[in-house]
Write a structure and sequence with these properties.
The protein is mainly beta and about 450 residues long. It contains two helices and 33 strands. It has a four-stranded antiparallel β-sheet with strand order 1-2-3-4, with helices on one face. A four-stranded antiparallel β-sheet has the order 5-6-7-8, with no helix packed on it.
Length: about 450
């Protein structure tokens, strides 16, 4: 934070400057007095503005965009829960979840809109979608407790919360089978074309046995595809053997008009190859493993994002490698016959310990950019639109906080994407101040 003798004249100048609440204004000040610093004015709460004291690589804001509180957050989702035209937030943490209402300019206040619930472990992942077709976005929570216990013993069950139409949620978890915890990711999509959103839980460990021959043995818990029947969800069959799933992306990867499923794995379980897999849809919600679609390598794939990074009309994959594997870009080379092959196109040696990834056009040039959420300094790469990424060291502020998740969306309503970051300490909102620079 700048010293007071420098901050006071900045604030005096800022308060005297008449600015439109709908436009961002940069006011440069004397380099000699303020060491190349500048003041950034952006729309603020209540129709006013917020003031940022900025240097070349970071800004200190007068008004925090999230309540200042120590957190142990793992996941987040942005959606317009109350249908007032802006993106609200739900953040999943160790022991539960919390909801935040957006005032329309990207400032969030905690609201009591979730069912009262306490979990023994973290909310590993969140998904939003209109599960009951009433026009309001509902929530699905993937819980991650119960490590080392047998299937269904203790721990927390995954949750479904339905929106009551006002932006508040009620517990409707009895709609889904109570199959235990240890889910690492969740996604929603209509896999069978009936107009109802279905749910996929990517699951990790079922149980571990120790003391016998060979020491300890880890057994994976099968993933769950839950088909929406309108008044309940039913478990559907999946191809392949159980594996330690960490990430799931549901998109139309082969371009045939139905939803396919990418599942990222980690190795080290009984009967598991650890290979990532692509399940292709037969058009009616039946799935088969797409042999040869993914490289047969046992790598950590703890998070993934899909997008057309090379502009050829199909969806590519960006995969996070966590601690023991590199981050990887796979280009989709779907044949004329509809057979999908993902080809390794780029690795990111400058980035380490990535736990989440996101794709969005941060700098407004029409090409997707990549945000890597890391255990350490986060990193942003700008895409060239032809399938290559270049590191932009100034795009995010420096720091060494453990970022556990990133959610991208236009929270301040100015037309460009911002970032909501969940962290082991203070969660943060970075606003896009132009050209993909997040502060």
């Amino acid at each position: 934070m700048p010293c007071s003798k420098h901050l006071k004249p900045i604030l005096a100048m800022a308060m005297a400057l008449a600015v439109s609440a709908s436009a961002q204004t940069i006011l440069h000040v004397g380099e000699a007095a303020l060491h190349a610093a500048y003041v950034l004015l952006v729309p603020g709460p209540g129709g006013g503005f917020d003031v940022g004291y900025c240097t070349s690589d970071q800004c200190v804001w007068l008004i925090p965009r999230l309540p200042i509180e120590s957190s142990d957050s793992w996941s987040a989702i942005l959606s317009d829960a109350d249908q007032d035209g802006d993106l609200d937030a739900v953040i999943g943490a160790q022991g539960g979840a919390e909801s935040f209402d957006n005032d329309g300019s990207g400032f969030f206040a905690a609201v009591d809109s979730l069912p009262a619930a306490t979990f023994s472990g973290p909310i590993e992942a969140l998904a939003a979608g209109d599960l009951n077709n009433d026009g309001y976005e509902d929530l699905v929570l993937a819980t991650g407790s119960g490590v080392g216990c047998n299937h269904g013993c203790g721990g927390d069950y995954n949750q479904v919360y339905l929106n009551d139409g006002s932006g508040s949620y009620y517990d409707a978890s009895d709609l889904i089978p109570a199959a235990g915890s240890q889910s690492r990711d969740v996604a929603v999509a209509d896999v069978n074309g009936d107009g109802l959103l279905d749910i996929y839980f990517a699951n990790d460990v079922d149980h571990t046995t120790c003391g016998g021959p060979g020491g300890c043995h880890v057994y994976a818990r099968a993933d769950e595809l839950l088909i929406n029947l309108g008044s309940s969800f039913a478990l559907a069959p999946l191809p392949g053997a159980a594996a330690r799933s960490q990430s799931v992306v549901m998109e139309d990867f082969d371009g045939d008009g139905d939803i396919d499923i990418f599942v990222g794995h980690v190795p080290n379980c009984e009967g598991c190859t650890g290979f990532d897999e692509l399940y292709v849809n037969d058009g009616a919600g039946g799935f088969a493993v797409a042999d040869g679609a993914m490289p047969e390598e046992a790598l950590e794939s703890v998070a993934a994002a899909a997008g057309d990074v090379d502009g050829d009309g199909d969806l590519d994959l960006l995969v996070a490698g966590a601690y023991f594997a590199s981050n990887r870009l796979y280009i989709n080379e779907t044949s004329a016959g509809g057979e999908v092959t993902f080809v390794l196109s780029q690795e990111f040696p400058e980035v380490a310990f990535t736990v989440d990834v996101a794709l969005a056009d941060l700098n407004g040039d029409g090409a997707l950019d990549a945000y890597f959420a890391n255990d350490g300094l986060d990193t942003v790469y700008f895409g060239d639109g032809a399938g290559r990424f270049v590191l932009m060291t100034s795009a995010v502020p420096p720091g060494d906080s453990y970022t556990t998740g990133v959610e991208i969306g236009d929270v301040d309503g100015d037309g460009d994407p911002d970032a909501l970051l969940t962290r082991g300490g203070q969660d943060q909102v970075y606003i896009n101040i132009g050209n993909g620079i997040l502060r």
